[in-house]
Amino acid sequence: MQDIQQILVPVDFHQHTDDLAAFASGIANKLGATITFVHVVGHFAEVAADAGFYPASVTEVEKEMEENAKKKMAALIEQHKAASPGCGGTVIIGEVADIIVRYAMDNKIDMIVMATHGAQGIEKIMLGSVADRVLKRAACPILLFNPYKGERGYQITTPIGDNVQPI
Which InterPro entries did the record assign (predicted)? Predict the structure, then answer.
């Protein structure tokens, strides 16, 4: 079984980001791995056009979104550096699933730990699932964290290698 040294944790800075970061830190500590958080800022022009909104300067809006995300990333790293020594983070503009898969490949990531949003029904059909697209395309193992399952109960009490088996 391959050693897990580098873990990629995609974050969206929404409601469950801190839960995901804490969960990933626990996994990383058990494995002796390092975490890299990544946030992908979607292309605003595509989102705006889909909504029928055409701002004066799409470039300026994307730049503001990127700067805001960088501030949030710095705060996330600061908040979790004690629990996850050596963690780092980056902000990238692009299509979310594509960027996560490419970043994992380019940076020799050994595992991705990401959250699901629990989309169901028409929402999932219309919007798709980033987790699903990453799961189908990434070359490394992926651990999905579902923050919507009520009582979390996620605790790793035995070595992860005893519970995770290659397929």
Answer: Rossmann-like_a/b/a_fold, Universal_stress_UspA, UspA
Choose between 158 and 58: higher pLDDT: 58
For residue 124, give the H/E element and its range.
helix 121-127
pLDDT over 70 at 123, yes or no: no
Sheet holding 34-41, edge to edge: 88-93, 34-41, 6-10, 111-115, 142-145
CATH of 6-122+129-161, one of 1.10.3300.10, 3.40.30.10, 3.40.50.360, 3.40.50.620: 3.40.50.620
Query: In angstroms, how far is CA 14 from the centroid of its own chain?
Result: 11
For 105, 109, 167, the CA distances from 21, given in Å and listed in that order, are 21, 17, 26
pTM assigned to the model: 0.79
- Of the pLDDT bands very low, low, confident and very high (cuts 50, 70, 90), residue 46 is low
SS3 1: coil
Query: First CA to last CA across the chain, in angstroms?
Result: 11
Please give the full DSSP string across 77-116, using - where no structure is assigned. HHHHTTTSTT-EEEEEES-HHHHHHHHHHHTT-SEEEEE-
